[in-house]
Amino acid sequence: APIGAQQLVGLYLELLLILLLREDEKPPLSPLVFASKESFDNHLVSQIIGFMDEHIYGTLSIREICEHVNYGKTFVSNTFKKATGYPVMQYYNMLKIAEAKKMIREGIHNYTQIANRLCFDNPHYFTRVFKRICGMTPKEYQMSVWADLPE
Question: What global pTM score does this model have?
Answer without folding.
Answer: 0.73
